[in-house]
Design goal:
Blueprint (H helix, E strand, L loop, with lengths): L4 H10 L3 E4 L5 H6 L11 H15 L4 E3 L19 H13 L7 E3 L8 H15 L5 H30 L17 E5 L2 E5 L3 H4 L20
Parallel strand pairs: 2-3
Antiparallel strand pairs: 1-4, 4-5
Helix pairs in contact: 1-6, 3-4
């Protein structure tokens, strides 16, 4: 979610949703969700997500958006582009263990952004279920804009990385990062949130405040 926030932010903004980002992870936030963590064997980023979910629900949001994703976008840097199982399916754990989610919509549908044609259909079905009445053409255009923004964002990262690598040794290299944070969207008094905490546990740039769900290439366990 960390690296994909430019994608989700653009997608929901284009559809008229207002985006709000939850606070950075800290000890207090972690402790606020500690009682709903079902297992000590989960990685720390997964445990953090409980606090983020609780915080979002305390804001009175109408829906929390945290999709399950078996695959990330393929960067063609390895043999596969699977997400870590915890990253991919932890929303299922949250749904079964966070009672505060019972008071809102929790959207944790399965999406595969790598298969764009399928995503058009699947995402439209999800919107039709939770937010009926959205124009199909507008949804299609918003999805196209989201893919374009993600490509632009990744190109920015690569350009900045190349500049940093060319700097003389000993000089600090600035990094371009998106803020790793759960996010909330509002449309016609409807609020949706994207929750991500993996990159919060090990931020690339601890002092950087920019947007999701981004990152390293994806949250690692």
């Amino acid at each position: 979610m960390y690296e994909l926030l430019p994608f989700w932010h653009t997608l929901f903004t284009k559809l008229g949703f207002k985006v709000t980002v939850s606070p950075f992870s800290n000890r207090k936030l972690y402790q606020s969700g500690q009682a709903t963590i079902p297992s000590d064997t989960a990685c720390f980023p997964a445990k953090l997500s409980h606090g983020h979910i609780r915080w979002l629900c305390e804001q009175g949001v109408d829906a929390v958006f945290y999709p399950c994703m078996s695959y990330n976008l393929d960067e063609h840097l390895g043999d596969n582009h699977y997400n870590c199982p915890v990253v991919a399916y932890y929303p299922e754990v949250l749904e079964g263990n966070c009672p505060e989610l019972k008071a809102t919509k929790f959207i944790y549908d399965y999406f595969n952004l790598e298969r764009r044609k399928d995503f058009y259909k699947k995402f439209q079905q999800t919107l039709d279920h939770y937010f009926p009445g959205l124009d199909r053409k507008a949804v299609h255009e918003a999805i196209d804009a989201a893919y374009d923004e993600y490509d632009r964002h990744m190109q920015q990262l690569r350009t900045r990385a190349r500049r940093s690598l060319r700097r003389p040794a000993g000089k600090a290299a600035a990094s371009l990062c998106w803020r790793a944070a759960p996010t909330m969207w509002t449309l016609r008094s409807t609020t949706v949130s994207t929750s991500s905490s993996s990159a919060r546990a090990r931020p690339l740039c601890p002092r950087t405040r920019s947007a999701a769900t981004s990152r390293s290439s994806r949250p690692r366990c």
